[in-house]
Amino acid sequence: IVRKGKTQLHKWAERQVILCGTCLIVASVKDSLTGKMHILPLVGGKVEEVKRRQHCLMFSSAGSQAQTYFVNFDTLADYQRWHRQASKVVSQTVSLVDLSCYSLEAVPEYLFYSQDVTHLNLRHNFMSLQGPGGLLNLPRFSQLKSLNLSHNRLGVFPECTCEILTLTELNLSCNNLHTVPVQIGNLQSLQTLSLDGNHLSSLPEELGGLSQLNSLGLSFNNFSHIPAVLERLSAVDKLAMAGNRVKSLELCTLARMSHLKNIDLRLNGLHWLKSVSLETVSQVTQLDLRDNYLDSLDLSSVCNLETLHCQRNQLGTLTLSGFTLRMLHASSNRLTTVNIYPVPNQLTHMDLSQNLLEYLPDWVCDCRKIEMLDVMHNLLSELPSRLLNSLSLRKLLAGNNRLQRVSDLLDHIPLEALDLQHNRLAELPESLFYKALNLKYLNVSANALESIPPSSPSEESLSTLQELYLTGNNLNENCGALLVGHQNLRVLHIAYNQLLSFPASKLSKLELLEELNLSGNKLKTIPSTVSSCKRLHTLIAHSNHITVFPEILNLPEIKLVDLSCNELTEIQLPDSLPATLQELDLTGNNSLMLEHKTLNLFSHITTLKLDQKSTTTAGDSQSASPPWNHSYSEMSGQRNKLCVSVLAVDRFGDGVEACYGIFDGDRNEEVPRLLQCTMGDVLCEELQHSSIDNVYMCNTFLTSHRKLGMAGQKLGASALLCYIHHEPSDPGGYFSLTVANVGTCQAVLCRDGRPIPLSKVYSLESCTEEMERVKLSKAIITEDNKVSGVTCCSRLLGCSYLSPWVLPKPWVHTKPLCSQDEFLILGNRALFERVSYQEAVCTVQAVRDPRAAAKKLCSLAQSYGCKDNIEAAVVSLHIAEDSCTCEPPVSTTEPRGPPPAPVPVTVTPGPSDPATLSSSSGIVSEFNSETSASEVGSEAGSTASDEHPSSVPASRPERRCSLHPATTLCLFQRQPSCATFSSNHSDNGLDSDDEAPLEGVISNGSKLEVEVDIHCCAFQLRSGAPESPKDLDLEKRGSDYPNGKMRRQNSVVVSATNGCLLAVCGREIADLKKSPSTCSLFGKKLSNGSVVAPEDSHNLIEVALEAPKKKSGYFTAPAQQDPEDQLIVPPSLEQEVREQLRGQKWLAIIDQNKPDLKWDTSCVKTCQQHFPLLGKQAI
């Protein structure tokens, strides 16, 4: 209801009111389409509450002839929303309208009444030229200065924009433009013109008349040479032509354009850049030649060059002028030397990493102002003494070389960071710490050090060292006394050395210590004086011989404690635990027994990892034992959230098969978690329809990408999936490993001690083909080699809004396995950036135990400088020459070797007080949302963990292979999975009120096991062989391929899932899904409008997307399926059900000519008539 004016002369009337841009638009009549509109400019005006009337606002314009409107709203919500938005408008000084990413086809009609609009953003829409709100109407904005029409797929240059003479900024990037009209010369006020990401190959001469134009973007077009019209644009100082087709360039061309100072020719495919004359190029100060094909570069004629970027070329020689050079970036080339004359006395930063330098040029030591020098990954055998004693050098990175010694320091130096990891150093300079008093970071990991220098020649130390990394040396416990002087130490990594103990009195002096890593030593105890380190938040001490739990649970800031792979027997706990404790890992302590009281104290810990006692009985010993076992480890680094997850299933499908996966979301945790929970099910379903590796793997990735729904629109993740199986043509033959990946997760196979990469890294820097594909699709690649500045990966699951530049199609590769294959390593980008393939293989070979090996890989990556999330999984392979994995039963009187490690379970309690465990027939109904990626997959188990692992040699089952299988008692089995459970329910199976055993919780001493089907057994249903020729004939006719062989053709599996009846019987259901009229019956429509196919299990993705988000950002896992809803057809009825499915024509019920068929009561009755054995509940 609206009233005009402050007096009572005007009456209240019902009118349409629009707040558009910076104006209030009020219709003059009730039917707003027939009358004129009153425009009230609000910039500089007032918006006030009217206290005499409920939900009423007063809008007043500015100026001496100000007008006023009173607007009364129906609801409080509308009133508050209008008040909030209008208050922002009246306070504006610039009229800015942002309508980007609204899928608009036209400008809203009412916006044209806002004559004070000066900035209009229409980026990422579908704007059309014609129509009432088409682009042809844009000249109606008489004061428009800035117009952004990028990413609108226009196809042609909108000439109407050349009529807006007030424009100073015009952005038409990524619009498939092929030409620029001559009318562009009308825009004499234009200062910025962005034409990046189009198909332009020439520019009109009229463009040269724009005297005020100072910024012209021509990147990622089709120019084969620098346009001559640029010579006339004297105000333009930057040539932005990255991603074009300039194959060669003469420097004299740049000399003619004396106004150009900054040249960007990245990603052009440049093969040569030469000076054919003696003419100097004096105006160019910044030159970017990254990611080209230059094999030599002579820029000595560019006499005033200040900054040069030439990374990722093929340079063997580099010659520069040093008069004004300040920054040189030349990493990832083949340089053996760098010639700069004269000595660059202005040089401050130089990056020569990843080259072939065997020595540093003499002029490097003569640079007076050099502050940062990076020469990592070269062939250097020594560092000049003059360089180390430089009075300007503050950061020196010389890791991954061949250094055998470091020269002594002669005087005090300002060095602040020194990285010497992965060299051959046996000692450090004696005077290092008391001559480099500003040294705050030192990394000497992976050397051969036996001692470290003292912090001071006397008892008094002035050391400012804060981070010290000593991992992977030969240090003993004597080094502890030498660390005392570094009292400012915050991070200490001394893992994988020869420490037998750590001096208690020395540890108490490190009061500022925040992170301590003592893993991989021979420690039996951690000194009690660790309690003096009040700021300690991370203690990692896995893979030792620790028997007594350290006194760290009284530290006020402790967050993470990792004591896995030790010899703990009991834990002495205080009365209460610190609220800051988020993660506690106690796996691999085979003798550890936890009491009921202890588990209650652990109830608030977000991630608790414990060993799980095996439930294997003598009756289970006949089952096949897989010829592999696995474990994994993950570290969150400096981030507060874990954005990686793992899928690991040792028993996958019907036969002896396995499935492993790694997912890395970079900065998001939602997408990796969704993929972890569902990708195994998707793979299992796709295997029902195809036995061709490229087909089922591609379909698995594409289906998982589609099913991410809204979560995958702006978020994405790298994904790696490994599937171990027999070839379908020879089910009893050799094993094969099929690997598929997108993004930067990688898999490495160790064969005869040599690493064999199995995956393809889909990053723009490492994959030339992908870089060319992305360039051809006219994506904008930023200077850090990211697509639209978002991701360095060209293939991901998710990030749908970056299509077609970022695709979900995976690389697929199948490799036969043999007896020489020892293990498989899976890792994310952060792992293999720091740990090479060969080092990773040698590390696992030295450790052998998969859990300890995975832990060591992560610890090494952290000690080598990684700050991101790290994920490593190790799969140990035991494959005989003929793929027979049988072994004779172990004698009960003479056990062979130590018992295998128990399978751990990750306990993730909620943040609240312990609550009663809700269970239904042994199925955990809910998971806690405050979890890490290790929640759904156990540390040495799997996402759907091994069903019956054994930990007692006497009851160890006889391992059988697919060539000699054990006797199977029934066709269909429902295998319970032991998986993650919440420790606020971990009270030994007893409710705190009545102490009665809870159904579904199996008590075993003080350990707990909870039966839970994370994947609802979609890939654990065992199907038997056909019992008759009829059955065999039915399976062959249900195959999609002429040979009649279909991977895991289930006999009959009827599942009541989400209210739908699914009959998995081969071709029938596949044809129904392909039919446009019936595919909707096999999917659930999401809130975003997409339809996804249901699984035989719970479709966790749809439920997770619909569930409300909690503060942590994790989704709430849905209640698991009741066992009564999963129908297992007994062998005696299997044949009859088959005949009914075939004879009664399932296709007749879901008729392709009835797309509007609904699952109503009549349909249920019809199904009952056709399936009398199933019953109403199943239908």
TrEMBL record:
Keywords: Cytoplasm, Hydrolase, Leucine-rich repeat, Manganese, Membrane, Metal-binding, Nucleus, Phosphoprotein, Protein phosphatase, Repeat. It is found in: Cytoplasm; Membrane; Nucleus. Coiled coil: none annotated. Its main location: cytoplasm. Residues 1028-1039 have a biased composition (Basic and acidic residues). Residues 1-91 form the PH domain. Residues 915-944 have a biased composition (Polar residues). GO terms for cellular component: cytoplasm; membrane; nucleus. Protein phosphatase involved in regulation of Akt and PKC signaling. Mediates dephosphorylation in the C-terminal domain hydrophobic motif of members of the AGC Ser/Thr protein kinase family; specifically acts on 'Ser-473' of AKT1, 'Ser-660' of PRKCB isoform beta-II and 'Ser-657' of PRKCA. Akt regulates the balance between cell survival and apoptosis through a cascade that primarily alters the function of transcription factors that regulate pro- and antiapoptotic genes. Dephosphorylation of 'Ser-473' of Akt triggers apoptosis and decreases cell proliferation. This is PH domain leucine-rich repeat-containing protein phosphatase 2.
